[in-house]
Amino acid sequence: MHGRIAVIGAGALGSLFAGRIAASGREVVTIDIDLARLSEIERHGIRWRENGIERHARPGAASARNIDGPINIFLFTTKAAALPAAIRSVKHLAADDSTAISFSNGLRHETTLMSLSGDTTPLLAVTDVSADLVAGVIETHGRGTIWIGGVDASSRRAVAAATELLRHARFTVEPQDDPRPSIWEKAAFNAALNATATIAGKPVGFLDNASGRWILDAVAREVVSVANALGINARLSTVLERVDHALSAQGDHRPSMLQDRDAGRPTEIEAINGAIVEMAGKVNIDVPVTRTLANLVRILEPTQ
């Protein structure tokens, strides 16, 4: 039994998770600070379109202060910068044996997840499932995969339960004993594609040319070299395959960083490119293209 499930973050990806989990028959509530979005979910449920077919489900929806615990599984889909505040908002809902799963972009989230409660099992997940919220409907471009794992062997039972939950909701899931390579591969993908698309102000397909691919390839190589120097077996071939798939099959997708820029919100540049540049310095590896993209996005940040 999974008990009660909460998806924290009612954006495109969080809504897709909540909708599919609800459609699978599990009890799930969507938690967010956007009261207008929660009201919309309460009134109309969540609609998403995949393979040209529109689907619908009615998960619960409420702000954290209006929910009673316990929650057994938390799925955090918030932006990286919002993750600590999101965790603080739901601490009162944690059970003695809660599992907390972070889908936030970037690096080093496991310590943040542990702040939910002393007995929380933190899991780290990355996904290439794409989701865009367009006129109240979640548009998802293909199935994609979720890679999920824990910080040590004691997490295996929680990983198995989370895998079963997400597979039952029709996601493709690959459980892992060590999720760090997948996390760094996703970070390399995001550092390249998200930052470049944001600077260009265009969907990812706009980068499918010689100049765009040169930048994406250079960033991927830099980030993988940092991961390898840290003893993490991230694979360049995996990153480049995912970049190629995004360019060829998801050309009209606007990455979350670009969506933030479009909405005038701060981006996740510090959690992705910024964190990579910082960690590169610790192993004395120069990452000039990754650093340049970070600085270009920073110049355009609304706080600058």
Walk me through the structure.
The protein is built from eleven helices and twelve strands. It has 304 residues and is an alpha/beta fold. The chain folds into two domains: 5-177, Rossmann fold (3-Layer(aba) Sandwich), CATH 3.40.50; 181-299, N-(1-d-carboxylethyl)-l-norvaline Dehydrogenase, domain 2 (Orthogonal Bundle). The protein is globular, with a radius of gyration of 18 Å. The model has no long low-confidence stretch (mean pLDDT 92).
Offer a quick outline of the entry.
It is an enzyme of class 1 (oxidoreductase). The protein is of the alpha/beta class and 304 residues long. The chain is 45% helix and 20% strand.
The tally of strands reads: 12
Mean pLDDT: 92
> Over all CA atoms, what is the radius of gyration?
18 Å
Tally of individual helices: 11
Per the CATH scheme, the topology name of the largest domain is Rossmann fold
State the order of secondary-structure elements, H for helix, E for strand.
EHEHEEEEHEHEEEEHEHHHHHH
Strand order of the largest sheet: 5-2-1-6-7-8-11-12
Annotation keywords:
304 residues; alpha/beta; N-(1-d-carboxylethyl)-l-norvaline Dehydrogenase, domain 2; 2 domains; 12 strands; globular
How do the helices and strands line up, and which of them pair or pack?
Blueprint: E1 5-8, H1 12-23, E2 28-31, H2 35-44, E3 46-50, E4 53-57, E5 60-62, E6 71-76, H3 83-90, E7 94-102, H4 110-114, E8 121-127, E9 131-134, E10 137-140, E11 145-150, H5 156-168, E12 172-176, H6 180-200, H7 210-229, H8 236-249, H9 256-263, H10 270-282, H11 288-299
Parallel strand pairs: 1-2, 1-6, 2-5, 3-10, 6-7, 7-8, 11-12
Antiparallel strand pairs: 3-4, 8-11, 9-10
Helix pairs in contact: 6-7, 6-8, 6-9, 6-11, 7-8, 10-11
